[in-house]
């Protein structure tokens, strides 16, 4: 149970407070409702590049990191296709420094040319390090445009290509800031050894004077239902053949989300899971096999991926995956198997309350979903899923005509 | 009127409280250290075994045992073990590190009595079936092939081997080592290492007397002792070594540079940690400021000091654009030179002091982190005075003392420099 209090400032900024007196620390987490899905198709990777620029100094404070380190704090951020999330942890008695820093960069950035120059390079190196200079590193750069034809999920957070980042201009940066970094487009969570009334005073002092800005109304192009099997073959300097299969599934707010999450657990959570036992242990077709969901806000993907044992043909391996998926479409999972994955989820949720930062991030994310209180109903939502739900969604999802399959092959094999 | 240019007042962290463990001993003599917290109904139990009987000709013995220990006993198959643990929502994890092999159980309190017997069966009667070993060998060899395509991993392997040679700390594992694995070797190692006389248990979470009795009932008896010799190594500082593995297609080069140093037991260790923080131990470090934030050569660069039971080493690691690799190397050595020749300014040093104290406070996030802090000192033969001294050193060390430490430990004529990619 993660308790919280909630209020909204005059400029529209939502504030949540989670009091936890067991720690001497505090967390200030701010979620901006903007991600790679909000980008222009010709300027991709921008939400993430912008996240880097948020550390390049703000209108009244030349350096963001230094004053924070000076009071014993640390910070970081991440960007996904849906959101951009910034967080600070610091000794609770120095919490005002976090308000000072975070509110100033919501007010306005310094927009320094030097910072833009440097971060273009840094992000280009990040692109190379994580996506281009790793075996199989560019899988998502290939798989997204195969699975999505219209929706902006068709590019990855890092962007479609290096040139989009290299060509970013200061005007782009300013326009992006004005459009998305407004109080009414953000959710602030303060957690730890703090009191709600103190947080309220600090929020009113530092954040309330920031102009509300214009409301951003998201109007994304929808993905049309997929009606044909899609396949693509890539050959690269990798040692093993691999298969990546992507199926369309509903977005995070759909009632079936919890059933999909359990379905991926049945297939692939741990050494008692189906894919691991059948495909890796018994049939020995894969040396690695996984299933997971993308958990995105708009309709997402259910992924099955594996690396093949040398000598196994792609046809055999793919057929074996389909056999497992077909089994879920035909037969109900047993009570025992369903209870197992539910118990595991219950346990994961209890363990996740061990981390103050995780609690703060979760509150912000669930508030974005509509209501932070949903976080405390998670266990119940998972327990409601029935075997029939699993079979039903398997039938709705695992169909050749809504699948996108990427064959990632060694150079000798292509 | 709000003055946004004026930083709010702040305080340096004054007190840091460590939760110290309570020690109990099971009927067979195994010590159990408990860090108690009643906030959540859960517990973590770590069974920690020292690594023993090192044999160069069988470098994967301990690693394979750690990976395969839950793959079958006389009573339960691999799948049954996993199903039962998962059914109770528990987590069973094994980890092999340079000095120790850890088996960790995470469980909700309500299922402790159900999962402990499974763990006991695994730790006392694991069988390492041949077909499980065959699958392991096949899959590990494939994973190794993928890893050998990663420049960062190659640089770690080369660096460890250059510093520590063919010991448990440095041996460069190859595919043929997997092929040579024999079931008898695993059984032999399991018997020698996973025994009560080689075990320390560290518990964190809600763990009361009744829970201790459950643990003692399961593990305090019917668990065979062994005789084993704890691994022991000696290392000597080398002359400058330059290792370059060229990868013509590389977009980035992995750099790893460093040398043998001291471990936690040495009185200079805390001071060296401060010096390391200045150089590359936090986001605002000199290496990050220069090589990422000023030059944009890399996504990240850092330095570290690692404390092993029988050695310590310091290192600087990064992945940089292949076209700027030589320039990055030059800048790294330049920063080391500055550390050895110029006093660290008052403002920077105070910032680092405050940052490190805040970071220490923040690292004690929950009961598990308190247990980790205990393990750090206990397995180095230290007590909580270590942390008192650490905090005192962070607060009071002088720039002159840090300059002396830089000259004592950053001896570039003894550096090992590994580059994988292009120069």
Automatic annotation (TrEMBL), chain A:
InterPro entries named among the record's database cross-references: Metalloenz_LuxS/M16, Pept_M16_N, Peptidase_M16, Peptidase_M16_C
Domain spans labelled Peptidase M16 C-terminal: 168-344
Domain Peptidase M16 N-terminal, chain residue ranges per copy: 14-129
GO MF term (any one): metal ion binding
Pfam families given in the database record: Peptidase_M16, Peptidase_M16_C
Keywords: Hydrolase, Metalloprotease, Protease, Zinc
Claim: Protease is one of the keywords in the record: yes
Gene Ontology BP, a term: proteolysis
Family: Belongs to the peptidase M16 family.
PANTHER family reported in the protein's UniProt record: NARDILYSIN, PROTEIN YHJJ
Protein name: Insulinase family protein
Species classification: Bacteria, Pseudomonadati, Bacteroidota, Sphingobacteriia, Sphingobacteriales
Automatic annotation (TrEMBL), chain B:
Higher taxonomy: Bacteria, Pseudomonadati, Bacteroidota, Sphingobacteriia, Sphingobacteriales
Sections of the chain in a coiled coil: none
Species: Pedobacter miscanthi
Name of the protein this chain belongs to: Insulinase family protein
GO molecular function: metal ion binding
Pfam families: Peptidase_M16_C
Gene3D superfamilies reported in the protein's UniProt record: Metalloenzyme, LuxS/M16 peptidase-like
InterPro entries assigned to the protein according to its UniProt record, in alphabetical order: Metalloenz_LuxS/M16 (IPR011249), MPP/UQCRC_Complex (IPR050361), Peptidase_M16_C (IPR007863)
Domain Peptidase M16 C-terminal: 181-354
